[in-house]
Amino acid sequence: MRRKFTLGVRLGALTAWLPAVALVPGFAAYGADIPLAIIGPHEYDLPVDFKPFNVVVQYGDGNAAGSVYDSGGQRRAHGGSHTWSGMTKYVHFRSFDAIPHVSFAFELIQSEAYTLANGQNWGGLGTTIVGPAAWFKPNKHSTLGIQTFMETPSGTRDATAMHYWANLSSIIFDYEWKHFSFDGDLGSVVSSTKHRNGEHSYSPGNVYYTNLRFSWKATSRFEPFFSLDWQNSGGMHDNTSNLWVANSSSRETALGVGAMFYITKRLSFTPRYSHSVEGRNVPETNAYYMKIAYLF
Predict the structure, then answer these.
(1) What is the pLDDT of residues 93-131, one digit of tens each?
(2) Is 0.90 surpassed by the pTM of this model?
(3) Quick check: 249 and 237 in contact, CB under 8 A?
(4) CB distance 290 to 271 below 8 Å
(5) What's the CA gap between 33 and 173, in Å, rounded?
């Protein structure tokens, strides 16, 4: 079996997501995050035909959303928030002799969150996310695959729980040149009906998103990159009243810059800054991201 692959592959673990907060009655626009905005370069630069191995990844981001985008797409300097989010992830990678040139991964992710808004603050463990991925290499320079995750409705506090199940599925891809790398995904989030005692029943709208990373392999230990993240969320339907919730659909595009530092052959650190360039019915992204990955 082949065990040799690039440093980017070894440290480019698969991803999961942090959900956006719905803009519906009873839910303030405290913060939002584009699905899979946490990823870095080489996230999907993955090997095939290898011996099993494991990766632990810690993601984190802090968003100082001093403004929000209204229903007309105008940026308004009010209703903002400060949010800090984290995701601790374990990934098991493996191939099977019976399925040559196709490889798999299984992920277990625990989210964490802390929010400061309108003079109030809360935090704790959020939802748990699990799911598989599978991919192959059309040629030695590229990777193409799919991933699908289920997110539980629960959290350690009411404010950190979603109260509905969600599925995130996406196409993942990567292409490697000698001095450059292009990574990305394209997918959707589909949610179950939201039920809470004493409240109306809601059906969240579907979310569509993409995340793109273009990096320059400046040295063997330093790789700056550009990022583009986009999402479009459908409106929330109030099933009890049989009405659509006003201004509950949203959209956002964010651009960013960052760098991937290869500390050792098994350890990397990836910081990034990202900011919204347009949006609708969503707090702005004004965020710092970080990713620490360790292979063992």
Answers:
(1) 999 999 999 999 999 999 999 888 777 777 899 999 999
(2) no
(3) no
(4) yes
(5) 22
